[in-house]
Amino acid sequence: MNSTNKIALITGGSRGLGRNMAEHLASQGHDIIITYHTNKTEADAVVAEIESKGRKAAALKLDVGDIRSLEGFTTEVSSLLKSKFGTGHFDFLINNGGIGGTIPFATATEEDFDRFCNIHFKGVYFLTQKCLNLINDGGRIINLSTGTTRFANPGYSIYASMKGAVETLTKYWAKELGARQITVNVVAPGPVETDFNNGTIRNNPEIKARLATVTALGRVGEAEDIGPVVAFLCSTAARWISGQRIEVSGGINL
Q1: Distance between terminal CA atoms of the chain?
Q2: Does 125 qualify as catalytic in the annotation?
Q3: Could you tell me the sign of the dihedral formed by the alpha carbons of 12, 147, 111, 66, in that order?
Q4: How do the residues of the chain divide into helix, strand and coil, expressed in percent and rounded to 5?
Q5: Region label for 187, one of left (φ > 0), alpha (ψ between -120 and 50) or beta (otherwise)
């Protein structure tokens, strides 16, 4: 597997962690397809930035929680690969797109549960399944999880449960896709200062300070802490890592 001339598909790549992943992969010489849910302006800005570095890039609209739309989306990806990138396949699938929400167990609704399940688990499952014929042998699949599958944070019972399911799923994919030399891994960030979950950490100094005190390195994370790890897992240096959960949290709650 060469280190250049690869193509990455990153869901939720218009801002935050996904944007940082796209930037780092582009800096390693890869071409990028990102998805966005509502903000086309931000997505177009990421595409322009990557193209300014001499790489090819494109943005596609996707609601990963709309399971019925996934078939059409993968058809769109296939057409884009041929028209813009001159190929029928891509190399790295990064399942990053998602939503946040602090929802106490006692007040959670079935609607909340189904929404998080569709976006964070069912959508990831079937999007990846539908992309299998488009991913090159020797490729990479990286699923984003959360530190809260290891430690409990009140209000995250739905979110963390779906991410826990993805972590188990990752091991099965690693086993079943190993014959194609496709590695599958989980990156589990700790608290990160972005606009995720309405910017809860970024906008609340008290929460930010409390999380910093229980983190070995004494601060909350930044998007720049996560993107390079994803880029590493897409490199030849990570070719012997599969089925693993890599927590990138600065040592929180050790």
Answers
A1: 36
A2: no
A3: positive
A4: 50, 20, 30
A5: beta
The C-alpha atoms of residue 75 and residue 119 are separated, in whole angstroms, by 20
Query: CA 6, 234, 190, 209 torsion: positive or negative?
Result: negative
Q: Please pick, among 125, 156, 159, 172, the residue that the annotation labels catalytic.
A: 159
Region 113-136 average pLDDT: 98
47 within 8 A of 34, measured Cβ to Cβ: yes
Q: Which two tokens stand for residue 110?
A: 């079935």
State residue 129 phi and psi, 5-degree precision: -60, -45
Q: What pLDDT, on the 0 to 100 scale, is given for residue 198?
A: 57
Task: State the average pLDDT over residues 114-120.
Answer: 98
Dist. CA 221–CA 224, nearest whole Å = 8
Q: What is the DSSP string of 107-148?
A: G--HHHHHHHHIIIIIHHHHHHHHHGGGEEEEEEEEEE--GG
Mean pLDDT confidence for 31-45: 97
Cα–Cα distance measured from residue 95 to residue 216, given in angstroms and rounded to the nearest whole number: 28
Entry field: residues in the chain? 254
Q: Where are the beta strands (DSSP E) in the chain?
A: 7-10, 31-36, 57-61, 90-95, 135-144, 183-189, 245-248
Token look-up 């086309």 returns 40
- Listed in sequence order, the residues at least 6 apart from 250 whose beta carbon sits closer than 8 Å to its beta carbon are 190, 215, 216, 217, 218, 219, 220, 221, 225
Domains within the chain, CATH numbers bracketed: 7-248 (3.40.50.720)
- Give pLDDT, residue 203: 72
Give residue 2's pLDDT band: very low, low, confident or very high (50, 70, 90).
very low
CB 18 within 8 Å of CB 223: no
Average pLDDT value over all residues in the chain: 95
